[in-house]
Amino acid sequence: MRLVLAVSLDGRLAPPQGGAAHLGGPADRRVLEECLAWADACLVGAGTLRVHGSTCLIHGEDLLQQRRRQQRSCQPHLIVVSRQARLDGALPVFQQPLERWWLAPGQARVDRAPPWSRGVVPLPRWQALPKAMVQKGWRRLVVLGGAQLATTLAAHHLLHELHLTLCPQLLGGGRLWLQDGVSISPNLWRPVESRPLGGGEWLCRWRRQPECGPSPEHPP
Ligand SMILES: NC(=O)c1ccc[n+]([C@@H]2O[C@H](COP(=O)([O-])OP(=O)(O)OC[C@H]3O[C@@H](n4cnc5c(N)ncnc54)[C@H](OP(=O)(O)O)[C@@H]3O)[C@@H](O)[C@H]2O)c1
């Protein structure tokens, strides 16, 4: 599971007052689309959708053709993480050309899927996430944020790759991409790539140490 975020130099993913930070330029956008082209499905927290209204789509014609050649849907499926699935039906995301699913963690009532979703994936325990995803045929997963979702996944050792674009801004405030109050193991990550994207941005990728267990997309 690959976490893909654009963050400020001080590790924020949004300005102090909240809302969209608009971090990341055209090269970061391309990197994001390449990740989407790789993915079977993307997880996004309901909070991010409430703020942004829509999700990122693949627009690059070469990437769309690549997916068609692979006989995959043009866009990866979107998995919306929410306890209640209470989202404004007028949000543009519900008009976007992709298949949407509701991932219902904890004790959420899941007797009825909301009209915007193809179905519900109940998740009583976060540790069951990899199995639940594989059962749906989703092996290559991208996590699009936000902080609450990223923090939960990191705390449960469910992330296998960190794919961060460092953007030359200092945002300050408290909107770190990892929240307080959870236990995260240090020293788990080894760098696999870092390169300039232009405009002062750097793409940095780290992979979790193999002794932490295989990921569904990289079986042993
Ligand atoms: N720079 C970037 O690349 C980037 C990317 C994404 C987001 N962002 C920014 O991040 C901010 C949003 O982040 P956020 O932390 O507030 O929101 P978030 O993680 O996107 O969403 C939080 C909501 O999602 C559901 N959720 C997420 N994790 C959950 C968990 N572990 N258990 C149960 N429900 C969970 C809950 O929905 P319900 O309330 O419906 O139960 C929760 O209220 C925005 O400002 C956005 O612009 C930046």
From TrEMBL:
Transmembrane segments: none annotated. Keywords: NADP, Oxidoreductase. This is Bacterial bifunctional deaminase-reductase C-terminal domain-containing protein. One of its GO terms (molecular function) is 5-amino-6-(5-phosphoribosylamino)uracil reductase activity. The keyword Oxidoreductase applies. Pathway: Cofactor biosynthesis; riboflavin biosynthesis. Residues 3-197 form the Bacterial bifunctional deaminase-reductase C-terminal domain. InterPro entries: DHFR-like_dom_sf (IPR024072), RibDG_C (IPR002734), Riboflavin_Biosynth_HTPR (IPR050765).
